[in-house]
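queue> pop job 88
queue> type: inverse folding (structure -> sequence)
queue> payload:
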């Protein structure tokens, strides 16, 4: 059978045809794969550090081998790494960002086609930030939960404590189609949309703790938090804890309070200008 009728190897940057119908690896990568023990998909996070401590090799991990540790394919793990700002586009491939270089990432070239790719030290698998990001990605893209009951979110949960996303799915549709959880969030979302500012709702914050922001502006690497119940002592404790995490990790943050909601044009515009925003 001619190789032209066979699929190409699924390893990032490899355009070699596979050897047989139904296979997804070329001969070279098939041999490499079968010399590396695979991790059970059902325990991709809980057994990760245990498996790593017993690993007999310190070989760097490319996107394919790193993805296998988390039961993701190369494209999926690169999406996670890109969202974390650990890698950047480089022509047809990838290169480490400044953050990635601090995490011991290295740039390589595929010998056949000179496509750039990134390799990682095996210790990267121990990163809580990466583990949280993978869990979040899987919950949205790979294993989305089935919602059997929709409960309105209570005001005291507005700061998004652990477990809120599963218990209180968003029920309010903003003007750009985003589903949000409160009238104030819908107004913020609408303002960002009307001013053509790219934004994500409830993104995982790049920190060791599993914490979600209200909005994230990727163009400015900027987080937005809306505080709606500052007179509630329990709410204020959680708010102060989140603010401390933002400060400790030196992340850019814009805070919106209840009395700013009806004056977003002046307040939010003035805040975003500090981070390089220019009205379009």
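queue> result:
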């Amino acid at each position: 059978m001619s190789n032209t009728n066979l699929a190409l190897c699924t390893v990032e940057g490899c355009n070699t045809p596979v050897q047989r119908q139904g296979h997804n690896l070329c001969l070279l990568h098939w041999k490499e794969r079968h010399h590396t023990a695979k991790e059970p998909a059902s325990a991709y996070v809980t057994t990760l550090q245990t498996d790593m401590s017993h690993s007999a090799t310190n070989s760097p991990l490319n996107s394919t081998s790193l993805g296998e540790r988390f039961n993701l394919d190369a494209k999926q793990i690169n999406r996670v790494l890109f969202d974390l700002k650990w890698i950047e586009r480089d022509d047809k491939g990838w290169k480490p960002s400044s953050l990635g270089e601090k995490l011991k990432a290295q740039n390589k070239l595929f010998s056949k086609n000179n496509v750039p790719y990134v390799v990682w030290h095996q210790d990267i698998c121990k990163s809580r930030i990466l583990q949280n990001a993978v869990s979040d990605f899987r919950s949205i893209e790979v294993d989305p939960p089935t919602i059997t009951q929709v409960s309105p979110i209570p005001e005291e949960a507005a700061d998004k404590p652990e477990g809120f996303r599963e218990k209180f799915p968003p029920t309010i549709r903003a003007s750009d189609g985003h589903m949000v959880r409160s009238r104030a969030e819908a107004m913020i979302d609408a303002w960002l949309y009307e001013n053509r500012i790219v934004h994500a709702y409830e993104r995982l914050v790049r920190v060791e703790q599993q914490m979600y922001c209200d909005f994230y502006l990727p163009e400015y690497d900027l987080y937005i938090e809306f505080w709606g119940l500052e007179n509630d002592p329990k709410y204020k404790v959680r708010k102060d804890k989140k603010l401390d995490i933002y400060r400790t990790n030196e992340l850019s943050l814009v805070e919106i309070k209840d009395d700013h909601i009806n004056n977003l044009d002046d307040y939010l515009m003035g805040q975003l200008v500090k981070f390089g925003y220019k009205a379009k």
